[in-house]
Design brief:
Layout lengths: L5 H11 L2 E5 L6 H9 L4 E5 L3 H6 L3 H6 L5 E5 L7 H14 L7 E5 L2 H12 L3 E5 L12 H7 L3 H4 L4 H23 L5 H13 L7 H8 L3 H13 L3 E4 L15 E4 L2 H7 L5 H5 L4 H17 L4 E6 L5 E7 L5 E6 L9 H10 L3 E6 L5 E4 L2 E5 H13 L1
Parallel strand pairs: 1-4, 1-5, 2-3, 3-4, 10-11, 11-13
Antiparallel strand pairs: 6-7, 8-9, 9-10, 12-13
Helix pairs in contact: 5-6, 7-13, 9-13, 10-13, 11-12, 15-17
Length: 389
């Protein structure tokens, strides 16, 4: 069984907090991880997509009061927003009785709704964590295979590339036909697919909602609402621009990524590595894959941005930590990476603690002028050690 990086962090949160919220897209492994955490302690699991389990919570206080001696795991909890006030009362009761930690583990796949609902009722009583699909540091899969298939467990662990692609296509279809219509505006599934595919084609580009709207023949507010929904469902990331007074005209548009590389390749019909490497999306897809691998290890402690000026200075990823440390990162799909002129210009503007070029090879080496060329594996190992220190 694959050990999830988040397991230790969640155990610590359960020891300190009455309730823990675990966010993540569908099929990322939230339920599996929750059941692993439940091993060795009294627990109760309820899936709120199940009519039978939901019926047990018709009178939530009466039912859950009988299980205050257990860790209660509530899956897809955003489907029962009225439950949060009841949880608040039960948590406060447990605290008065000296049993204030490890009461509830709440799983959800729609982040903003769940954060709002739980935040209003459980302020000061809850910790939040996000579970991504498998990270490279969690598996022994070859890096290129992980990049091709993405990190969703059924896709990455499939018997072959064809089976993996079938799973991802079914996953996309399920979201288009079932999940997205539940949360967002009523748009035909084919229009939603076209928009999602356009996002994949423009992977890592600057977000231009008006251009997408014209291409699809949809109102700009409708497209904006759908993009918000994809971010809410943890399927798309908006990477905000760095905002600081550096005396330059900054590009203020966010960049966007379809967060799982395997979904990008499924939307574009790329079944194997050869097809991927010959496609124009290869470079942007690799960049987005690296960004997701890094941010899975540094968020929420650190903040991440991109940086671009009208004069040509550009940084793929700029990470800042609360202690003042900052990393300027350029991502290149090349075994002999060299910093661009825009990278040097941005470094003069930002004055980062470290300047890195991340590449897909196995070797790490200096590039002069205190710029480091590092393999992705080396950077991930560094960040993993940092997260446990």
């Amino acid at each position: 069984m694959i050990q999830r990086h988040l397991a230790t962090i969640l155990n610590q949160s359960l020891a300190e907090q009455a309730a823990v919220v675990l966010l993540g897209p569908r099929q990322a492994g939230k339920t599996t991880l929750a059941m692993q955490l439940a091993e060795g302690r009294p627990s109760l699991y309820l899936d709120l997509e199940s009519e039978a389990d939901s019926a047990m919570l018709t009178e939530p206080v009466l039912f859950l009061r009988q299980h205050l001696d257990r860790l209660v795991i509530l899956d897809e909890v955003h489907r029962a927003p009225g439950l949060f006030p009841a949880l608040r009362g039960l948590i406060d009761q447990a605290r008065r009785e000296g049993r204030g930690s490890g009461r509830f583990l709440l799983l959800g796949s729609a982040s903003l709704d769940l954060l709002r609902q739980s935040g209003e009722s459980l302020a000061g009583r809850v910790a939040y964590h996000e579970l991504t699909p498998f990270m490279a540091v969690e598996t022994s899969s070859p890096m290129d295979e992980h990049w091709l298939r993405g990190g969703f467990p059924p896709s990455l662990l499939a018997a072959d590339n064809a089976q993996s692609l079938r799973w991802r296509r079914n996953f996309i279809r399920s979201y288009l036909e079932r999940d997205l219509p539940q949360f967002g505006p009523r748009i035909p599934a084919e229009s939603l697919r076209r928009l999602w595919t356009m996002l994949a084609h423009q992977q890592g580009g600057l977000l231009n909602t008006a251009s997408l709207s014209r291409s699809l023949g949809l109102h700009v507010r409708t497209v904006g609402a759908y993009l918000d929904l994809l971010c809410d469902l943890l399927l798309v990331r908006r990477l905000p621009p760095w905002h600081a007074n550096v005396g330059k005209r900054l590009v203020k548009s966010p960049k966007f990524f379809v967060r799982d590389s395997g979904l990008v390749h499924a939307l574009l019909g790329l079944e194997n590595l050869e097809a991927l490497l010959s496609h124009p999306v290869a470079g942007p897809s690799w960049e987005a894959f690296v960004v997701e691998q890094l941010l899975a290890l540094v968020e929420p402690e650190a903040q991440a941005f991109h940086y671009r000026t009208s004069g040509g200075a550009e940084v793929d990823l700029y990470i800042t930590w609360p202690d003042g440390e900052s990393w300027q990162i350029e991502i290149k799909r090349s075994l002999s990476p060299r910093p661009s002129r825009g990278f040097h210009s941005a470094r003069q503007d930002l004055q980062p603690t470290r300047a890195l070029i991340i590449h897909p090879g196995d070797q790490s080496f200096p590039l002069g002028n205190e710029i480091e060329a590092l393999s992705l594996g080396a950077v991930l190992a560094d960040l993993k050690q940092r997260s446990h220190s």
